[in-house]
Every structure is written in structure tokens, then in C-alpha cells.
């Protein structure tokens, strides 16, 4: 997650992040939204969905729920 965040943070231009379905990219975006940007679980999942997350939503929710301070 730290490497993904650094890539996004250090780029001063629009970025295309790709995977075959968008599902993995969306999951990474959701985790980043919660862990780095401090969004609640619900907002992070919403962001993940906007990035293409579908089938990994339950795994992301589980991972976020296991973190201290999960909202």
C-alpha cells in the first residue's frame, strides 16, 4: 500500500491505473482511501467501487474491519 500511495502521491498529472477487471485497482483505492486518506469504511468502499471494485468488496471490508480505528 505504501508503494501504491507513493506512486499516486508523487505524480503531478492524471494517472491511469489498470488491471483486467478494475477489481484489484478498486480494492487498492479503497484500502488507500481508508488507511492513507482517513476515510470511513463506507466512504472507502464507495471510492473503491468508483475505481471498479466488485468481487473484492467483502475482502476489503474484512481487512478494513481488522485494522485499529476502522470506521
From TrEMBL:
Highest taxon listed in the record's lineage: Bacteria
Gene3D superfamilies tied to this protein: Protein tyrosine phosphatase superfamily
SUPFAM superfamilies per record: (Phosphotyrosine protein) phosphatases II
InterPro entries, A to Z: Prot-tyrosine_phosphatase-like, Rhodanese-like_dom
Domain Rhodanese intervals: 2-60
Record-given protein name: Rhodanese domain-containing protein
Species of origin: Lysobacter zhanggongensis
